[in-house]
Amino acid sequence: MNGQSPMGLAAAAAAAVRPCRRRLLSSATAASAARITSTSLFPRCPHPHRQPHGRRLPFLASAASHSQASQSGQNISVTPVPADPRAAVSGSLPFFDRVLFPDTSPLAPATEEAAATAATADEEPASATEAREETETEREAWRLLRRAVVSYCGEPVGTVAAEDPECTETLNYDQVFIRDFVPSALAFLMRGETEIVRNFLLHTLQLQSWEKTVDCYSPGQGLMPASFKIRTVPLDDNKEAFEEVLDPDFGESAIGRVAPVDSGLWWIILLRAYCKITGDYALQERVDVQTGIKLVLSLCLSDGFDMFPTLLVTDGSCMIDRRMGIHGHPLEIQALFYSALRCSREMLVMNDVSKNLLRAINNRLSALSFHIREYYWVDMKKINEIYRYKTEEYSHDATNKFNIYPEQIPSWLVDWIPEKGGYLIGNLQPAHMDFRFFSLGNLWAIVSSLTTPKQAEGILSLIEEKWDDLIANMPLKICYPAMEDDEWRIITGSDPKNTPWSYHNGGSWPTLLWQFTLACIKMGRPELARRAIAVAEERLAADKWPEYYDTRSGRFTGKQSRSYQTWTIAGFLTSKMLLENPELASILTCDEDLELLEGYACCLSKKRTRSSRRAANSHIVG
Ligand code: GLC
């Protein structure tokens, strides 16, 4: 991040470099000494009303109107959200859905009026959200998820990546990973336990851009860590007092030393989900939170040498965090980037400075969706076009813009591409298309409306058609197909963890179930998700909730897989809860934005005539 950036973030950026620590005192003397000397570096998160496990949750439909107003860039007057979410239940906010979860302990209504409202709702006829007895597997999953919770100074702040009692070599699986926590957060949010998510969001914000270096080089300001760990260290010279410190890892300790590009994007996506489900919009409007969003955006939107609207990243900068040949413009990052831009646009408080930022976001969103929809999409027709491409075209209106040699079409694809449906390829670079199918990128492109609705349907239809390749014995293949032989040797650097059909190289990752469920719900195909969940439910508990599965059909537990992997557990719970409360999917999804299509049409009109613009528009919406 450049301090003189047009977004005027210099002062804010400085404020974002904050060590995150709190003191734990082991004696009264030390306590009083510390009270005098220590200023609280960390802002206390006010949690005036601890929320009991399993309660009625106000899911604010008013969130939709709030976000629409923000999207259109109006200077919105924000609906005042009471600090106590129970006030929302009492009906002091315009609309809300009521969701009842198993194990709910009724929340004491704040007023008599609220009691009356609650009583009426309780008498309403049974609906799809009626309480259901949890299965044994779900009960076990909840117990394990709670076991994975870590606390910082007595407050829950996240979940460790894995809590495997049989594994002696923890590596960094005892850390709270930003991306891994997302499904945990969603499970807790949907159960009404919002405190842990709020704490997580605020603590990771404190860690953003903390000065850490790899061999004298600092990561860009705005970078969120891949993970953090809570350490207890002695307080200065005082042997009686200790302090707890949050220790982030920006990739400087990670295997391969890769900066996690996805962390900041996930943080923004989760922030929006938290605010939408709780109605606590005051959180997103806090100055430090607004600064956090702008720093992430600033890092992503800064100018570089790249000609594409997609984000240029190194290999391993996302869920696939080892060398797998995804450097360049991998789909997963582009889908998360698009989603984070859409979420930020809803959350940014409008003023003169953010007006420029909003313009930059809108421009990028149009260009990005145009680029992905046009150039990443493949189906039978498109593959056939590529097959007949002319090469070495030098001009503005070349058909084969990226100079793709048809010989690149892999032999597996020729037989694999179905008549119906299609997908977004994994990566696009000059003279290179990575034709592998990457699940997370495709699913999140559906969830965020990066694809057209027709493309979204096409992706689900392909997954259905290729069920035995992508789901088989365990949902879901991280990518298809695996790289083998020389390709594996050259591209992974002979990585023994990423052998063919294992781990990132064609392994099956049950955590991806929640993203699949979300995409299915969005596209009105919950039955597909239900089928996949049934496959997973049969095995996960018996297999001790593995991190991943191996082999072409996902039959074996992964060679080096952890047991009791938290995002496997949370992904399963989140999938089940989403299916039962499909209206909650909207805290994560974005709808097709018709205004953006105008920008999209402009991109098209640069290369087509004015008269074809209407035709282009109908193609996009279709
Ligand atoms: C592995 C995965 C990564 C995950 C981490 C913790 O490194 O590749 O995506 O975040 O484990 O579970």
Automatic annotation (TrEMBL):
Cross-referenced Pfam families: Glyco_hydro_100
Keywords, comma-separated and alphabetical: Carbohydrate metabolism, Glycosidase, Hydrolase
Cellular component GO terms held in the UniProt record: mitochondrion
Protein function: Invertase that cleaves sucrose into glucose and fructose.
Protein name: Alkaline/neutral invertase
Domain of life: Eukaryota
Biological processes annotated in GO: sucrose catabolic process
InterPro entries: Glyco_hydro_100
GO terms assigned for molecular function: endo-alpha-N-acetylgalactosaminidase activity; sucrose alpha-glucosidase activity
The protein's Enzyme Commission number: 3.2.1.26
Compositional bias segments (type: Basic and acidic residues): 130-139
Family from the record: Belongs to the glycosyl hydrolase 100 family.
Reaction(s) catalysed by this chain's protein: Hydrolysis of terminal non-reducing beta-D-fructofuranoside residues in beta-D-fructofuranosides
Region (Disordered): 62-83, 111-139
Chain intervals with Low complexity compositional bias: 62-72, 111-120
